[in-house]
Backbone:
């Protein structure tokens, strides 16, 4: 009977040794999984920080361009108003002169009226 007990004891010992190996290997696996998750989180944080930095820079560039365009537009509108005040009388003078000399020439109209009056 002692042999049986020894044999059974040996089997139990072997079985418990395998169980301990499995436990240790699973603990190592768990530890590796945990560490990989931490590393992935750190990489994701770096990526998100980098992407937010790039996006922030691009937003800054776009907004400064928009501001410059708005300022340039305001400047051109001011110049147009200033020049418009001075150019309008000149245009009116030229239009009056041109219309008097070409379109509504008094002597041409008078001659046409006299010719049409007789017919």
Residues:
């Amino acid at each position: 009977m002692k042999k049986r007990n020894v044999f059974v004891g040996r089997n139990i010992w072997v079985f418990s040794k395998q169980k301990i190996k499995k436990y240790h290997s699973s603990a190592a696996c768990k530890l590796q999984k945990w560490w990989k998750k931490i590393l992935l989180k750190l990489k994701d944080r770096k990526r998100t920080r980098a992407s937010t930095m790039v996006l922030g820079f691009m937003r800054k560039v776009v907004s400064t361009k928009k501001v410059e365009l708005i300022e340039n537009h305001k400047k051109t509108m001011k110049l147009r108003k200033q020049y418009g005040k001075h150019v309008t009388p000149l245009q009116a003078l030229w239009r009056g002169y041109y219309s008097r000399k070409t379109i509504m020439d008094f002597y041409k109209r008078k001659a046409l009226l006299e010719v049409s009056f007789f017919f």
About this structure: The longest helix spans residues 2-103.
